[in-house]
Amino acid sequence: MKFHCMFEQSGTFKNEFKALGYEAYDYDILDDFGETDFKIDLFKEIEKAYDNKPSVFDDVAQEDTILAFYPCTRFENQIGMHFRGTHHGLNIWNDEQKLEYVIRLHEELHNLYVYITKMRIVAMKRGFKMIIENPYSSQHYLVRYWPITASLIDPDRTERGDYYTKPTQYWFINCAPSYNFIFEPQTLYPKRSIANKGDKNAVNNKVERSLISKEYANRFIREFIL
Question: Which residue, among 210, 159, 225, has the nearest Cα to 187 in the 3D structure?
């Protein structure tokens, strides 16, 4: 049994799987954290697998599990403000600039929606286990416009040792959450707030906001996956 951790920030989970004695690998087009074992374009691999062409998914056995931290930047609830042109960053734009922007934005959202849907279809057809992660809110695009509801919602990740509350949803495909009881103390970090760091660090804030503590990863694996 192997664990295939895909997309950005999945290296933390990979390392915790390995610490627990399992074989695990990280896949992404980027290697910002020096954890990527296979540097590949996963969107192209999803397209190839959906079209029944050779892809990285051919190496996933039915007893394996894919844990996909799928990109969420076009699904989160603030995307509606961008489409309406009311986000504070668009205040200096004229109507033509806003309209040109939403054309590109909608194309990006469409592509991400198609790829996540095709990835799920590939998993369903091939029978291997897959867990997809994304933020949770009532306005999240997949909550409102995807025909599949999440299998598990974690409303406060700090209760399992993470840095941020950040409500998160998980879809379990060809498997189900284990709901194991973990009888042991855990590290509880003071809650962090990216909003206090200022707009000048927006890019770094976005990266830090998506970080997952190793304590959270370890506990989540043992509580819900193994």
Answer: 159
What DSSP string describes 122-143? HHHHH--EEEEEEE--TT-HHH
Per-residue pLDDT of the chain (226 residues; tens, 9 = 90+): 999 999 977 789 999 999 999 999 999 998 877 889 999 999 999 999 999 999 999 999 999 999 999 999 999 988 888 998 888 889 899 999 999 999 999 999 999 999 999 999 999 999 999 999 999 999 999 999 999 999 999 999 999 999 889 999 999 999 999 999 988 877 776 777 665 444 444 444 455 556 788 999 999 999 999 9
CB atoms within 10 A of CB 36: 20
Phi then psi for 147, rounded to 5 degrees?
A: -75, 0
Strands (E), 38-165: 38-39, 65-69, 129-135, 152-154
For the record, the structure tokens of 20 come out as 């627990």
Span between the terminal Cα atoms of the chain, in Å: 11
Whether residue 203 contacts residue 2, with contact meaning beta carbons closer than 8 Å, is answered with no
pTM, two decimals, is 0.89
CA dist 99 → 74, 82, 85, 90, 188 (Å)? 17, 10, 9, 11, 45
Distance CA 213, CA 215 (A): 5
Dihedral sign of CA atoms 16, 57, 108, 143 in order: negative
